[in-house]
Write a structure and sequence with these properties.
The protein is α+β, with helices and mostly antiparallel strands. Helix content is 51%, strand content 14%. The chain has five helices and five strands; from the N terminus they run αααββαββαβ. It has helices at residues 3-12, 17-42, 46-86, 115-123, 144-153; strands at residues 98-104, 107-113, 126-130, 139-143, 159-160. It has a three-stranded antiparallel β-sheet with strand order 4-3-5. Strand 3 and strand 4 (139-143) form a beta hairpin. The longest helix has 41 residues, at 46-86. It is rod-shaped. The termini are far apart.
Length: 189
Amino acid sequence: MSDDLRSQLLKTGLVDEKQVRKAKTQKHKAQKGNQKKKKDRQAPEPGVAETRKAEQAERSRQKNREQQERAERRARHAQIRELVSKHLAPIPTGDAALDYHFQQAGQIRHIPVTADLQTRLIDGRAAIAGLEIRPEKGFRVIPRDIADRIRERDPEWPLVIPAEGDTGGSEPDPDDPYKDYVVPDDLMW
């Protein structure tokens, strides 16, 4: 009760001094009990704080590991882009340009090559590499040893080595209706 209300009730005779003191002590005890309950709720158990710290440390380590992996992947991709750009075969133009068709990720693509590059691709002395990890950036012809170095660094890099795709050494399917017809590797489109 507020002081004004208390004094008014005393004047009218509805309550006496004893009842006022009793109400005041009950109110004080209730407030003090609420404070203790709040403190009990706020104070965590000693093991809970340690486990939270351990969980937070583990999350931090995981996040750092992921950031480090991303940085390493970016560095590898930069090295591969540099390798590809240093060892590119020139793009032929005019009458010297032949379209070389190849399959990459289920799509038929083509690049202009010279007759010499075409024979090197067929023999396995050259390979086709993506300029970026995304194949839509384009493809270029590079030497085979550079393609092997790229594959060592990142097996996911878009890389086509035509000599590896040959199935000449394997047995043809006996049910294949076209098994008697041989398609040459240097077929011009």
